[in-house]
Write a structure and sequence with these properties.
Elements lengths: L16 H9 L10 H15 L3 E8 L2 E8 L11 H9 L3 E3 L2 H4 L16 E8 L5 E9 L7 H54 L3 E6 L4 E4 L1 H7 L3 H4 L4 H4 L2 H17 L3 E8 L5 E12 L5 E10 L1 H23 L3 E6 L4 E4 L1 H6 L19 H17 L3 E9 L5 E12 L5 E10 L1 H23 L3 E5 L5 E4 L1 H7 L4 H7 L3 H4 L5 H13 L1 E10 L5 E12 L5 E10 L1 H50 L5 H31 L8 E4 H18 L3 E6 L6 E4 L1 H17 L5 E12 L2 E10 L21 H7 L5 H11 L3 E7 L3 E12 L18 E5 L3 H14 L2 E5 L2 H13 L6 E5 L7 H9 L8 E6 L7 H6 L2 E6 L4 H17 L6 E3 L3 H4 L12 E5 L3 H13 L3 E5 L2 H10 L4 E4 L8 H15 L8 E6 L4 H9 L4 E4 L4 H15 L27 H5 L13 H22 L6 H17 L3 H13 L5 H28 L2
Helix pairs in contact: 1-3, 2-5, 18-19, 18-30, 19-23, 20-21, 21-23, 28-37, 31-32, 36-37, 36-39, 37-38, 38-39
């Protein structure tokens, strides 16, 4: 055995051989080699393999190379260190020296000298498995030598084998040493284990160890007790065997982190102990290393910190609560030290102190913020609390700030103590009660005010029990009841019901109302005063209840209304007297109206009939004067009656559908003559957006317009009167229409503009003398407008004119589905030139022409018109029509026509003359100037449409020489056209006044009826028993048996006859009473219609026509009378055609030979009638409503031109109502048109035969 240095674990770098050698040389450890024999054998084997006689093995010992084995070597040189071996060891590879004398640099090896004298040398390094240097295997020979490759490899293997032998020897030596040391270590380990065990068991902490698998390898008794298990039950188990899954997973994750990071962790975590109790532990975990530094597990130390955790939580909660309190409380919270300096304060207080942050208050006192008036007492309070320990609770303090501001707070202060109970300061809360103090002050003043009111009030004020005893009363109540003081009243009136009320049941009624409603208002009762006198009082009271609804008491006020009661009685008497006076006035007006209208009927009736006879010029003048004066008187009477009806509230407003445009046009046309007579420009401008059909009172609108337009004409001496109608707005089916009447008259002074709407007042007193009138017109007009829910306004400038305008809400009637909004016209798209100098006339015509979809152009002078016509004609864009005003600034309209005729145009435009006197112009003169049509002013869409249609009809027939004159008044002012529907029809006149009898007889004869007369109701009944009269004109006011009773008896007679062969007679009231209730009284008595005296011929004609049309059955079989359309009249009896119109188509000689009438009759009967009837039948298909209306319109025009007035009226009715009536009603109306067409054809043929 010998020693050898252990260099197995040395970490020498092989790339630095010199350093490696030095490191090995410095080792002081001995190596013991037990395999020395094996080394000798290796040396011998090396000698044999190389063929060299000497082989040696040098080993490093104590930092030096020494020879330990060999063959043929000298033991005395064992410790001899050879440079050659050091070189081999440093080179880390074999070195072969074939000739030492040549190849050893500088220093010759001792082996090449005596006694060795080696010539050949080779060395192989011996290294451990970790490449640590151990020694050198060398071979030498005294003669030169060389080694083959195989020898080199074998020697290298032997050097490695030597290294293995050295390792084994070293291990064996170490083993022997370790065996002894192991005994010592084991003892020390056992001692250490005992010490460690005693240590960990004596510590209060829980200590555990786990291996890398997480299995417990140690657990002290504290840990075992904590989880209720023995160490045997714990060792070898994992956390998942001992703890809930979520905790076990966390513990395992912590172990993994510790082992991977090689770092300890220290945390506080939740733990679950016995009985699933939760606690908190503080844990320290560290990795466990083996001697080689490898991690072999974890070690944990932990201890219970539940109490500490709870304490920390409570402290944190308290801090958070305190912080929340101080940050959010609206009161002033503060903490002060023993010097009254702020330690902490709330956010609200710091904001009030004007600080950015509560910490800014620290170290300051009240003297920094408040005046001494407040700061000094506050400081004294703090010192007193610190001295005595007594708190201050709810002290009201006046805060005076340094800026002069004053406030009030409610303060509570407490002593602030340390842990030992020593007072070290104060803390407190101050609540701002400034508003409360102000409110209390206001309340105090209010209470005083109400106490003063209570004491000084004029009305009595009381509180009483529900049972009827006064609890409190003011002096006024005592005075009302006749007591000298409230104390006397409260002491005397102990039973209100029996002592106070004249009728005790009134108190019961009072109590009932208070119980049911909780209050009473102006409850009137009669009571006894203390002196026994009766007075009237009015009580207003309420019931005061508790939270459960139980009545506690009544409180209220009492007013003495005795004087008011007396005044009311006087007022009632006056009202009754006024009502009686009004009744008597109405009776007087009705009687006066009746008495005046009776002679008026004779005057107007006879003058009207007189004008129908042949008169001289003076006689015509006298008759006109009589009639106009009578009509003026009639208007005066009507105004007075209307005003009386409005004043008495008896005026009613109708709400019926009508065509607003036609209604306005008719109204304007009736007044056109007045304007034309004064030479005024009369203009009607209806906006194209105005709805056609509306719901309203047609008559009252006409009355308002007539009044306003009549006034405008009356007070305008030159210039124009213009009427404009346009919609203002549409909402929920209601159209607000604005009507304007604008004139260029005398105007109205500003101071008179409001007064003129008052009754019997005019703008100037002289006007009544100059212009006439009652001063009622505008008053009635305004009230009518307001009754129709509209407004009437006036705009005027003295000397320049006035504008009266009013607005009305009218419900717009929707058209039935299928009718187009925009009708089509045959002249749509054609060009028309209008020569009109008046801008307002142009404005009125423009929307009509736009509606026609015509290409129109305006000029203001005749010469400009000629220029425009020539220019467009030569540009191949000729005009189709020329519409010229009869009065132009540079020439007359006829002069223009004469100049226009001189132009060589082909075809030449049709000329339409607009004139104020169209009906007075010579037709021959107009034809001579080439006028195709005259349209009377104001031009309306209806009149212009009729004119265009007639032009087209004439063009179709080729009768271009026929002159046409169109006027809206033509169908309204010619009573001869309203002839009897059934000629020679008998009409019974029941009238006691001979004059009225005579007027009625002449009118009936004039209209083609056969009159019979009864001068009393009894006589009428006798005549009715003998003969059936289809129509009766019934006077209402007759002696003996009046018209109402007579009518009732006639109706009774008809019901008793039980005959279906006769229709009930049509009874028309003919009375001088004209109030609305008179009309209703007539209808209620059984009459069918009503005409007011004085009876005008057109009015009577219309009433008779309506009555006659109702006698004609719609279908056969309703009566025995033959259909009127099949009646063959005598030659002079043509009930359904106007022969006057037909005669204008005859030649001047009155014969048909040179006239065009036969051709017209043939075209109308053979073409027009079949065509239109076929169109109507076809138009009954769904969606063809516009075709039906258009066909009815065309048929109406052609029937009018042929004088077939009844047929035209039926077509007009179909045109206006087709979109509003049912399909069955439409079919019946078309059937009537067919029957009338047949009758018209027969009448036309008979007329032709009569004039041959």
């Amino acid at each position: 055995m010998f020693s050898i240095q252990r260099i197995e674990k040395e970490s020498m770098k092989p790339e630095d051989s010199q350093d490696s050698y030095q490191a090995a040389k410095q080792s002081n450890r001995d190596q013991v080699v037990s395999g020395i024999d094996e080394l000798h054998q290796i040396a011998q084997l090396a000698s044999t393999v190389s063929g060299c006689k000497t082989a040696m093995i040098h080993l490093i010992n104590d930092g030096k190379l020494e020879i330990y084995a060999g063959r043929n070597w000298e033991p005395s040189s064992q410790h001899h260190e050879l440079p050659f071996c050091k070189k081999v060891l440093a080179s880390e590879q074999a070195i072969v020296i074939k000739d030492t004398s040549v190849e050893l640099d500088g220093e010759r090896s001792c082996l090449s000298k005596a006694p060795w004298n080696f010539k050949f040398m080779a060395g192989f390094p011996i290294r451990s498995k970790r490449n640590a240097p151990l020694g050198v295997l060398s071979i030498m020979d005294k003669s030169q030598h060389s080694l083959t490759v195989e020898q080199m490899e074998s020697l290298d293997i032997l050097s490695k084998h030597a290294a293995g032998t050295i390792f084994m020897g070293t291990a064996t030596s170490e083993l022997h040493k370790l065996s002894d040391a192991h005994q010592k270590i084991k003892k020390a380990y056992d001692d250490s284990e005992a010490f460690y065990h005693n240590l960990v068991e004596s510590l209060p902490q829980h200590i555990i160890r786990k291996d890398t698998k997480g299995e417990f390898t140690f657990a002290n008794q504290n840990f075992c007790k904590a989880i209720g298990k023995t160490s045997q039950e714990i060792l070898g188990k994992t956390d998942f065997d001992l703890f809930p899954t979520h905790l076990a997973a966390k513990y395992q994750e912590d172990d993994r982190v510790v082992m991977e990071s090689l770092q300890k962790i220290e945390i506080t975590e939740e733990n679950v102990g016995l009985n699933e109790t939760k606690s908190y532990v503080h844990v320290i975990k560290t990795p466990i290393f083996d001697p080689s530094g490898k991690v072999v597990g974890t070690q944990g130390i932990f201890w219970d910190v539940t109490d500490k955790k709870k304490t920390e939580y409570e402290l944190t909660l308290e801090r958070r609560l305190l912080r929340s309190l101080l940050e959010t409380i609206p009161d002033h919270v503060y903490f002060k030290d023993e010097k009254s300096q702020f330690i902490r304060c709330s956010r609200e207080l710091s904001d009030r102190l004007g600080l950015k942050d509560p910490s800014a208050a620290e170290g300051k006192t009240d003297f920094h913020f408040f005046s001494e008036e407040h700061a000094k007492p506050a400081f004294q309070d703090d010192m007193e609390i610190i001295r005595t320990g007594q708190p201050i609770i709810n002290k009201i303090e006046k805060e005076t700030w340094r800026n002069g501001e004053v406030g009030w707070v409610l303060t509570s202060k407490m002593p602030y103590k340390d842990e030992d109970g020593n007072i070290i300061g104060t803390f407190g809360v101050s609540k701002d009660i400034s508003k409360l103090i102000q409110t209390e002050e206001k309340l105090r003043k209010t209470e005083q005010k109400y106490r003063d009111i209570f004491e000084q009030a004029v009305e009595g004020i009381f509180q009483s029990t529900p049972e009827g005893k006064y609890l409190e009363a003011n002096p006024a109540l005592a005075r009302i009841y006749g007591y000298k003081s409230t104390a006397a009243l409260l002491g005397s009136l102990t039973n209100i019901q029996q002592q106070l009320y004249v009728d005790p049941s009134r108190r019961q009624e009072f109590a009932r109302l208070m119980k049911e409603d909780g209050e009473v208002h102006e409850f009137e009762s009669e009571i006894y005063r203390k002196d026994g006198r009766k007075i009237w009082i009015s009580e207003t009271a309420r019931s005061v209840r508790d939270d459960k609804g139980k009545t506690l008491y009544y409180e209220g006020v009492v007013e003495d209304i005795s004087e008011r009661k007396q005044a009311e009685a006087a007022l009632q008497y006056a009202r009754d007297a006024a009502m009686e006076s009004n009744r008597l006035k109405s009776v007087f007006l009705a009687n006066m109206s009746h008495e005046i209208r009776t002679p008026m009927n004779g005057i107007i009736g006879m003058s009207s009939l007189l004008r129908q006879t042949t008169l001289s010029e003076d006689q015509v003048y006298f008759a006109d004067t009589i009639e106009s004066s009578a009509l003026g008187l009639l208007r005066l009477i009507n105004d007075i009656l209307d005003f009386s009806k409005i004043e008495s509230g008896k005026m009613t407003i109708e709400n019926e559908p009508f065509n607003i445009a036609e209604n306005v046009e008719q109204t304007v046309s009736l007044l056109a003559d007045q304007a034309q007579t004064k030479g005024l420009e009369f203009i009607l401008d209806i906006d194209c957006e105005t709805p056609s059909m509306v719901l309203g009172d047609r008559i009252r609108i006409q009355q308002v317009l007539t009044n306003l337009i009549g006034n405008a004409i009356k007070f305008t001496h030159a210039g124009e009167v213009r009427i404009k109608i346009a919609p203002q707005s549409h909402q929920n089916g209601i159209c607000w229409l604005k009507f304007q009447v604008i004139d260029s008259g005398i105007g109205i002074k500003p101071e008179a503009r409001e007064d003129i709407f008052e009754a019997f007042i005019q703008a100037d007193n002289s006007m009544a003398r100059k212009y006439g009138g009652t001063g009622l017109g505008l008053a009635i007009t305004r009230q009518l407008v307001e009754l129709m829910k509209g407004t009437l306004r006036l705009e005027s400038e003295t000397g320049k004119g006035s504008c009266f305008w009013f607005t009305l809400p009218l419900e717009a009637k929707r058209l039935r589905q299928g009718r187009k909004k925009q009708p089509t016209y045959e002249w749509s798209g054609q060009k028309i030139l209008i020569i009109e100098p008046n801008d307002h006339c142009q404005e009125a015509l423009a929307p009509i022409l736009r509606n026609y979809q015509m290409d129109y152009h305006f000029v203001d002078k005749g010469r400009r018109g000629l220029t425009e016509l020539s220019k467009e004609y030569h540009d191949s864009k000729p005009y189709h029509y020329v519409m010229v005003n009869a009065a132009l600034p540079d020439q007359s309209g006829l002069d223009f026509c004469q100049m226009f005729n001189a132009l060589q145009f082909s075809p030449k435009p049709k000329v339409i003359l607009m004139s104020n006197f169209g009906n007075r112009l010579s037709k021959a003169h107009l034809k001579k100037h080439g006028v195709s049509m005259v349209v009377n002013k104001p031009v309306t869409q209806r009149s212009l449409t009729r004119g265009f249609r007639r032009i087209f009809q004439v063009d179709k027939t080729g009768l271009d020489t026929q002159f046409l004159s169109i006027s809206d008044t033509s169908s309204l002012a010619i009573p001869s056209l309203q002839t009897a529907e059934m000629p020679n029809q008998q009409v019974l006149i029941v009238e006691d006044n001979p004059v009225n009898q005579s007027v009625a007889e002449h009118m009936l004869k004039r209209l083609g009826y056969q009159p019979a007369t009864a001068d009393s109701g009894k006589k009428a009944l006798e005549m009715m028993q003998k003969n059936h009269y289809p129509i009766i004109l019934m006077d209402c006011q007759m002696p003996d048996l009046d018209g109402y009773e007579t009518t009732k008896k006639i109706r009774e007679m008809e019901s008793c006859e039980q005959s279906g062969n006769q229709n009930p007679c049509r009874i028309i009231a003919m009375t001088a009473n004209s109030m609305d209730d008179d009309r209703q009284k007539c209808l209620d008595a059984g009459m069918d219609d009503y005409v007011s005296k004085p009876v005008l011929l057109p009015t009577l004609s219309t009433a008779l026509k309506n009555a006659t049309s109702n006698l004609i059955p719609i279908e056969k079989g309703h009566c025995d009378q033959k259909n009127p359309t099949e009646h063959k009249p005598e030659q002079s009896d043509f009930h359904n055609i106007d022969t006057g119109i037909l005669k204008q188509f005859l030649s001047p000689e009155g014969s048909t030979k040179k006239g065009v009438l036969p051709k017209l009759v043939q075209m109308f009967c053979e073409k027009e009638i079949p065509k239109r009837l076929n169109e109507m039948n076809a138009a009954m298909e769904p969606g063809s409503m516009d075709k039906l209306i258009r066909s009815a319109h065309s048929f109406k025009g052609s029937a009018n031109n042929m004088g077939a007035q009844k047929l035209a009226d039926l077509c007009s009715k179909l045109e206006s109502s087709a979109d509003q009536i049912t399909e069955d009603q439409t079919l019946k109306l078309i059937k009537l048109i067919k029957n009338e067409s047949k009758a018209t054809k027969q009448s036309l043929q008979q007329f032709l035969a009569s004039v041959k």
